[in-house]
Design brief:
Layout lengths: L8 E5 L4 H12 L3 E3 L11 H11 L7 E4 L7 H6 L1 H21 L4 E5 L28 H21 L3 E6 L1 E3 L12 H15 L3 E5 L5 E2 L1 E3 H14 L6 E3 L5 E2 H12 L4 E5 L14 H7 L7 H16 L2
Parallel strand pairs: 1-2, 1-3, 3-4, 4-5, 5-10, 6-9, 7-12
Antiparallel strand pairs: 8-11
């Protein structure tokens, strides 16, 4: 990317979050001037706070690129418990941020969607053309539909105003600094925490939600951050682009891999009364390679080892 990032003024919504905490240092190392507010600085579902954020970020010069990472997110349990909240909060912040980015003359808008946007029974590997073939899986439908709305908004802004908004669809992210709150977290940090606590307490069983037969495509967060930078540099089209590892693994296989990585000698008890979520999930990432030369490079085993190392050093307590 050469000199592209040098002195670029970048605004990252959700800059203090999981993905933002990995993207921000990469951009700064490349020479960009980054403004990365956290969720405590502004309530992005309130118009006056969005205006204040843009006032603060653009005080001295215009924003070259805005990475919109802010979202209200959670695992299957959180989405099932509070679908209205997930829909409302995400729809409000997405709508306000896109609208004010256009009004404030942001040169390029990089939006991050979600694999939850895809229909429940999308044939794997999911291709971007499948996005509108059906309704999202029920436990994630409100969140996924809000993310679909963000795509439509950006595409309509491009059509009406020539606004350069691009849209990336990552699969399930994982890695260091992800939340392991058992009420809201995704499967990998939740399992790491459960296994670690079982080891600490001398327990020989760990409960896992669902039957274990559902499959997922897991993308290491550092790979995702690098994809965002490459897309911002090279991609300028309206079509959404998948970001994934391209590797499908069942939850049954994931727990066995974590068992090996963490050296756990116990067994896993699957609670079939809990939802599995989408039956299968793996992305076709050929468009990302063709359009901006990106593909994931971190294997799941290596990524899990790095995530577990971080948890044992920083996540406990």
């Amino acid at each position: 990317m050469g000199e592209f990032w040098k002195d670029k003024r970048i605004l990252i919504t959700g800059g203090g979050g999981f993905l933002g905490s990995h993207l921000t240092p990469l951009l700064r190392a490349a020479g960009a001037c980054v403004v990365a507010p956290g969720h405590c600085d502004y309530d992005l579902t309130i118009e006056s706070d969005v205006i204040r954020m843009f006032d603060d970020a653009g005080e001295t010069e215009d924003i070259d690129i805005l990475f919109h990472l802010a979202a209200t997110v959670g695992g299957i349990g959180a989405n099932s418990k509070s679908p209205s909240e997930f829909y409302y909060l995400n729809t409000m912040m997405n709508t306000l941020i896109v609208d004010y980015a256009r009004r404030r003359g942001v040169s390029k808008f990089v939006a991050v969607g979600s694999v939850c946007m895809y229909p429940k029974f999308t044939p794997p590997p999911f291709r971007e053309k499948n996005l509108w073939d059906g309704y999202p899986e029920e436990t994630n439908a409100a969140y996924g539909t809000a993310k679909r709305g963000l795509l439509v908004h950006l595409q309509s802004m491009r059509s009406q105003y020539g606004f350069n908004g691009i849209y990336l669809i990552p699969t399930n992210l994982y890695g260091p600094r992800d939340s392991a709150n058992l009420e809201t977290s995704h499967v990998i940090p939740a399992l790491i925490r459960k296994i670690d606590e079982a080891e600490q307490q001398g327990l020989d069983t760990v409960e896992v939600w669902g039957t274990g037969t559902a499959s997922r495509d897991f993308l290491y967060v550092q790979d995702a951050a690098e994809a965002l930078m490459l897309a911002a540099y090279r991609y300028n089209r309206a079509d959404p682009v998948n970001l994934g590892s391209g590797q499908e693994i069942k939850i049954l296989g994931l727990v066995e891999l974590l068992k090996e990585v963490m050296g756990f000698d116990g067994r896993f008890v699957f609670d079939g009364s809990r939802p599995d979520g989408q039956p299968r999930r793996v992305l076709d990432t050929s468009r990302a390679w063709e359009e901006f030369g990106w593909q994931a490079t971190t294997t799941l085993e290596d990524g899990l080892r790095q995530t577990v190392e971080w948890w044992r050093a920083n996540g406990r307590g």
